[in-house]
Specification:
The protein is mostly beta strands and 191 residues long. It is built from two helices and 13 strands.
Length: 191
């Protein structure tokens, strides 16, 4: 079975920025100052919170202002983060309710057959003969496997399970996924 991992959600609707500009992926959302040493409570939006460590560069807010993480530790279902140069609750309070992002071109590669969500969202889905089925608009996570929500040309939604039986090939470079139309999975395949 192929795994599908994600780091965050693309900030651009299609995951594609203006030509030449970097793509930023949200990894957290800052909530409120915590304590008196410049820490903030941050909701985690990544499957890899361990990558948010001291010395890591992140980008905060719509203007993607760069910050270096000074410290980072777990706090129940969230993280407590502090940024270099911000040592008071008043200083970090200005960052409240902003997204924390990383650059897509700076994230580590995943193993064979593993993909970040931003690599899959917007991808074209075709059948074994190359006929267009639609485009991936969402990814649902389940205990067994991820499920791709594909919007067809006639604006219907089709659910495609991420299993070896259904997903035959994923071509990140061409942004195309080839799938097998199993009976009952698609209305057209049931005939």
């Amino acid at each position: 079975m192929t795994d599908l991992d994600h780091l965050g959600q693309p900030l651009e609707p299609t995951g594609s920025p203006v030509s030449g500009e970097p793509v930023f992926l949200a990894v957290g959302k800052l909530r409120r100052p915590h304590g008196v040493h410049g820490e903030m409570l941050m909701d985690v939006l990544t499957d890899f919170p361990e990558r948010l460590a001291p010395g890591v560069r992140v980008f905060i807010g719509e203007d993607h202002q760069p910050f270096l993480i000074r410290s980072c530790r777990s706090q129940m279902d969230a993280l407590l983060v502090a940024f270099q140069g911000n040592t008071t609750p008043e200083a970090v309070g200005l960052l409240r309710n902003r997204l924390v992002c990383v650059r897509a071109d700076e994230i580590p590669d995943l193993g064979e057959g593993e993909y970040y969500h931003h690599e899959i969202l917007g991808m074209k889905v075709v059948d074994e003969g190359g006929a267009l089925i639609g485009f991936i608009t969402d990814i649902l996570e389940s205990a067994a496997h991820d499920i791709f929500v594909v919007q067809t040309e006639d604006k219907k939604e089709v659910l495609i399970p991420m299993t070896d039986e259904v997903v035959l090939k994923v071509d990140i470079t061409r942004r195309e996924m080839q799938v097998r139309l199993l009976p009952g999975l698609f209305p057209e395949a049931a005939d």
